[in-house]
Write a sequence for this structure.
């Protein structure tokens, strides 16, 4: 149970939501946006977050978009992971989020909620990092579009009161060879030891990682090692692991050494899958 009371608001447009956020702030409230709600439930129960005004954006039309525009697929931040998976317009994303939590939770968890959530795995962001996607937001300065690499560094860094509206994926990326593997120590729905998503573009492999460090990431240094064809595959993978942007996690899910073992063999599988085609 959440141990604090809060006011609940349900604006009809993104612009209305932004104005509401600003108004509540002026009143001394601590407003927070929510879509699926799951991004607030667990942290709220643990008293990790505290808000006294919740602005629900899940029914805002701009946040529910799922369409092609100007050779880009636009995916609204309030789409549930189930909706994203069933649409199938972005196969790598469908694969990457298909095993997030369980089926019931995926009916509630939204794309934006996963990417912006407090739980550090944020697997849904991996395909967007791999495809150099654009992020569409709205704030007190109106609508903005960013390259995802300019606003995502360990987490999505938006201005206070700014809403993630949608993400745009260039059409040419949607059906490139890909692979995505989630490895758990046990069970089918527990937290993962690691999730690795990969995409092959023009003969080069791109890789993004979740559950490896305490933040999701894509690293050009890691990719440089994986694509160094002057080295045997085993050495390429070892070199890639040595270039991770932070220490490998050592927690209740698995020790750092065990994680490195899992990551190494998962990368072998990823490279093999890309040779054989999508899986």
């Amino acid at each position: 149970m959440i141990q604090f009371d809060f006011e609940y608001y349900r604006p009809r447009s993104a612009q209305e939501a932004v104005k509401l956020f600003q108004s509540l702030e002026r009143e001394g409230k601590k407003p927070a946006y929510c879509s699926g709600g799951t991004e607030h439930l667990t942290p709220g129960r643990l008293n990790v977050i505290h808000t006294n005004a919740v602005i629900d954006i899940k029914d805002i039309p701009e946040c529910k978009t799922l369409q092609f525009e100007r050779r880009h697929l636009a995916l609204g931040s309030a789409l549930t992971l189930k909706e994203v998976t069933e649409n199938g317009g972005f196969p790598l994303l469908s694969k990457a989020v298909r095993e997030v939590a369980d089926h019931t939770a995926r009916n509630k968890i939204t794309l934006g909620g996963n990417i912006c959530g407090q739980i550090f795995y944020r697997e849904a962001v991996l395909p967007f990092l791999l495809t150099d996607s654009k992020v569409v937001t709205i704030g007190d300065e109106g609508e903005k579009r960013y390259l995802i690499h300019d606003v995502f560094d360990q987490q999505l860094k938006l201005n206070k009161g700014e809403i993630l509206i949608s993400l745009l994926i260039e059409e040419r990326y949607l059906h490139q060879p890909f692979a995505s593997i989630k490895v758990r120590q046990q069970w089918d729905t527990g937290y993962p030891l690691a999730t690795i998503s990969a995409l092959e573009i023009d003969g080069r492999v791109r890789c993004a990682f979740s559950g490896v460090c305490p933040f999701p990431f894509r690293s050009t240094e890691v990719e440089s090692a994986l694509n160094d064809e002057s080295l045997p595959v085993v050495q390429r993978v070892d070199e890639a692991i040595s270039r991770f942007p932070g220490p490998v996690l050592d927690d209740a899910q698995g020790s750092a050494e065990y994680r490195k073992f899992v990551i190494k063999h998962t990368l072998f599988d990823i490279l093999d899958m890309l040779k054989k085609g999508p899986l």
Observations:
- The chain has a mean pLDDT of 90.
- The CA atoms of residues 65 and 76 lie 5 Å apart.
